Amino acid sequence: MGFExxxxxxxxxxVVVAFVANMVLGFVWYHKKVLGGIWMxxxxxxxxxxxxxxxAAPMGSMIVLxxxxxxxxxxxxxxxxxxxxxxxxxxxxxxxxxxxxxxIPHYTFAQAPNRLALLNAGNTGVGITLxxxxxxxxxx
Length: 140
Prior knowledge:
Elements: H1 12-29, H2 32-43, H3 47-52, H4 56-79, H5 84-109, H6 114-138
């Protein structure tokens, strides 16, 4: 079995839906009434400080990087002939087993709060798993 990158095989609607789902997840996850208050406490900033900073640069980079990772996930799932179950499993393996697991040590070395590491890594793992599920569903 060979591994071929098939740009023409990507379901771009699935990529857009997965991307939007991740944006919604992030807005809910980091809302001050959900986990955003904990996040702000752990990074030592108030809502006013965050709003007064340069929001465009982090949002722009997040959008570009999330698009890259979602397209990459679509390439991987599409290459294995993924359906719903395969998308969920691949998303969970990459989301929690690779991305989230690699994210946590950065917080440990920075001596950041453990709950901040878990909060952000959890969002990464859930987001990639969700993307895999959506992309897999579109490839079924």
